[in-house]
Amino acid sequence: MSDEPRFSPNLVMLVSIVAVSTASILIRWSDAPAVIIAMYRMIISVVMLLPFFIMNDGVAKLRERGARDILGLFGVGVVLAIHFASWITSLGMTSVASSVVFVHIDPIFVALVSHFFLKEKINGRVLAGIVISLIGVTIIALGDAGASEASLMGDLLALLGGLMLGIYLLGGRMFRRDLDLTTYVVPVYASAAVVLLLMSLLTGAQLIGYASRDYILFFLIALVPMIFGHTFYNWALRYVSAPVVSVSLLGEPVGASILAFFLLNEVPGNQVILGGVVTLAGILLSSYRSE
């Protein structure tokens, strides 16, 4: 696989940031249960990408990898399914601003996992960033706890989604070293779809029979934040520099909060704004690396 990108990685990253910022808005507009939204998001994404996977000899490439790697890809898919199920559920319980800040605390989890399991020691700057981020999320949580118990539970679910996102990104970094884009994302997305289908069956969620408006939203959620968002982001991660990655992590919370203000008339409280700024500053400090 060539290391020379066909398109500007920075431009692709910008498109992905804008795309993922729409996810929370599109999800809020749907009346379907969270697990159903997540399930259709992944199923439709797989259908869209499957022709490229087949044309790219994806099946043969997976056979060459062996059972261990295939199980690893399935594991990443399970993590992605939990990420979407918990985060999308959180959007029905807390504000968009709180949810997207909590779910994007993943660089903190990545730093901790790298320290304890990958033997990549945390330096003073990273530790300071972690502490600042924890102060920020505490400010948000205290504000949301004062609002309602549901808001606090939504924060915790988004935090679980952030933990899963961090594990998902670590898995992606490992597999994307020598797997092309479609050979990586299609098995992962398909695995997530299967897990979400099982979750839907276990929770008794209605699988079909939703309004036409919901099916249109399912399609848009798959096309915009998943294909143009997550999938573009997975492509760009092979080429972008560490500073660009770090700054991009701040894009969705900012973009989603702005869209929620204009499209959902959702004005974040002062504590959410303060806590969000502090949290994002800590994430930037801990994840930024100079070249």
Q: Which value, in Å, is the CA radius of gyration?
A: 18 Å
Taking the alpha carbons of the first and last residues, their distance comes to 24 Å
Q: Got a strand count?
A: 0
Percent strand equals under 5%
Q: Helix/strand/pairing class, anyone?
A: mainly alpha
Oligomer status? single chain
Number of domains: 1
Provide a descriptive summary of the structure in words.
- By secondary structure, the protein is mainly α.
- The protein has one domain (10-287).
- 79% of the residues lie in helices and 0% in strands.
- It has 14 helices and no strands.
- It has helices at 9-21, 23-29, 34-55, 58-65, 67-91, 96-103, 106-116, 124-147, 149-175, 181-203, 212-236, 242-248, 251-263, 270-287.
- The model has no long low-confidence stretch (mean pLDDT 87).
Q: What characteristics describe this protein?
A:
291 residues; 14 helices
Could you outline the blueprint of secondary structure elements for this entry?
Blueprint: H1 9-21, H2 23-29, H3 34-55, H4 58-65, H5 67-91, H6 96-103, H7 106-116, H8 124-147, H9 149-175, H10 181-203, H11 212-236, H12 242-248, H13 251-263, H14 270-287
Helix pairs in contact: 1-11, 1-13, 2-11, 3-5, 3-10, 3-11, 5-9, 5-10, 6-9, 6-13, 7-9, 8-9, 8-14
